[in-house]
Design brief:
The structure is a single chain. The protein is of the alpha/beta class and about 450 residues long. Helix content is about 40%, strand content about 15%. Strands 14-13-12-15-16 form a five-stranded parallel sheet, sandwiched between helices. Strands 10-9-8-11 form a four-stranded parallel sheet, with helices on one face. The protein has a three-stranded parallel sheet with strand order 5-4-6. The N and C termini lie far apart (about 55 Å). Bound molecules: FE3-S4 cluster.
Length: about 450
């Protein structure tokens, strides 16, 4: 990688918001002047932008897209349907990030939303957020709004507008990326904040990585021998993620996961590993793309294993990990004494809100409990939110238990999410344990 590229994408920083660039100001003009050409094919219009014909912001954005495209061998830019931009919480981007965004001018060319910010935009005082933080956070949101980005701060943008199979996107929140690729069959790389913003303002992204079919084939087979359910899917992702790294796992399961269970599996795989796409045999939409020339484990071999009945039309990667479900169950059994129970990582679905109400059985909670939800999605389910609030639970919009500084005030958090289990200790300095939604609510009512 050339020195110049390193300068642009210096230090990807892995955070719950996806890979967020450390924001480095690109000295105006210096980069283009010192750059001796690019390898991608740009159209005349794209080249005009690249050369600054549509102003310095778009030039900067195009430089980011082209630099990434060249690094990863893209031949061209492709149009995207939407963007989801990380790098929103003042807790994670600080003043340097705010300054960088504030200096930009332009308008998003595609629908674009934001990742969760550090507070509920309207109820930040009740979260114990201090005014200085709130003002800075508000400045960040306004800076994004000025760029035509909707101040909808959620890690589940697919509850707002569901991408279609095959759509190209530029999303940056790692769990949303995993969901879009795996559950919906849309195509997005795990963008950093600036590259998602660049894609939003240009309306395009470089065609590399998971935008290309060949890169979406599974690389490792994960065999889970016993049925699992609910939060155990998040725990499974937490256990398997580090073993898979940035591979593309295909799971053979003894149980059929719901959409929420897939959401939790992907979120945990993406945070404890760097997975951006997974498949589940007989469940997710792209399992049929395996090309015969890549067949590695076929029917013959599988038939020798009583407990692994796979239809003959499937061929799976030979590299294989057998999951010890005991490790998943053990993780689920270590609860300790939480002083905060936090649900909604990723932001809760309507079904998950209903599950919480069912688990409450009309009771009031006796501990601090947060449920994190996207604002627009929650407004559609206002009756459910009211019902949950009656129990004493705090339903928070726009934010979450990881990116809000308010979470740092607790000692031990109980969650129903493998992703939160991974990030709460490192991002909030708070111990964490995982249980099912029912166990979390039981703990809250104890
Ligand atoms: Fe969303 Fe925060 Fe979890 S951004 S995925 S609720 S860590």
């Amino acid at each position: 990688m050339g020195k110049l590229y390193k300068k642009i994408i210096k230090d990807f920083e892995v955070s719950p918001e996806g890979r967020v660039f450390k924001i480095l100001p690109l000295p105006k003009g210096e980069y283009s002047k010192s750059f001796c050409g690019y390898h991608m094919h740009l159209t005349n219009d794209e080249e005009l932008i690249y050369n600054g014909g549509q102003g310095p912001t778009l030039q900067k954005m195009m430089e980011i897209l082209v630099a990434l495209g060249d690094i990863y061998g893209a031949e061209k830019l492709i149009p995207i349907k939407s963007a989801q931009i990380a790098g929103v919480s003042y807790k994670t981007i600080g003043d340097a990030g705010l300054e960088w965004i504030s200096d930009l001018k332009g308008t998003a060319k595609v629908p674009a939303v934001l990742n969760p910010m550090g507070m509920d935009r309207t109820a930040w005082e009740s979260m114990g957020i201090d005014k200085k933080f709130a003002l800075k956070q508000e400045e960040i949101i306004r800076a994004y709004e000025k760029l035509g980005i909707k101040a909808e701060c959620t890690c589940t943008p697919y509850y707002l507008e569901r991408p279609r199979f095959g759509d190209h996107l530029a999303w940056s929140e790692s769990s949303a990326v995993c969901f879009a690729n795996s559950v919906l069959g849309a195509r997005t790389n795990r963008e950093g904040g600036p590259s998602a913003l660049a894609a939003a303002l240009v309306g395009k992204t470089a065609e590399y990585g998971l935008h290309i079919k060949e890169n979406r084939y599974p690389t490792v087979t994960i065999k889970v021998k016993e049925p699992i359910h609910g939060a155990e899917y998040g725990a499974l992702g937490y256990v398997v993620g580090p073993k898979v790294g940035d591979g593309v796992p295909i799971f053979t399961l003894k149980s059929t996961p719901s959409e929420d269970e897939l959401k939790h599996l992907g979120a945990a795989l993406a945070s404890s590993g760097a997975v951006a796409l997974f498949h589940v045999l007989d469940v997710t939409p792209e399992q049929y793309i395996l090309p015969p020339e890549r067949m590695e484990v076929g029917k013959q071999e599988l038939e020798n294993e009583d407990d692994w009945k796979v239809p003959s039309r499937y061929f799976l990667p030979r590299e294989r990990i057998d999951v010890d479900v005991g490790a998943v169950k053990k993780l689920m059994s270590e609860h300790g004494e939480p002083d905060l129970i936090a649900l909604g990582c990723p932001h809760a679905s309507k079904q998950e809100l209903e599950d919480i109400i069912r688990a409450l059985k009309g009771r009031k909670v006796k501990k601090d409990v947060w449920v994190c939800v996207g604002r627009s999605a929650a407004e559609k389910d206002a009756a459910l939110i009211d019902e949950i609030r009656k129990s004493g639970i705090k339903v928070l919009y726009d934010t979450c238990m990881v990116v809000s500084p308010a979470a740092n005030n607790f000692k031990r958090m109980m969650v129903n999410s493998g992703k939160a289990l991974k990030y709460v200790p490192s991002m909030c300095g708070v111990e964490a344990s995982i249980g099912t939604t029912e166990e979390c609510i039981e703990e809250a009512c104890r």
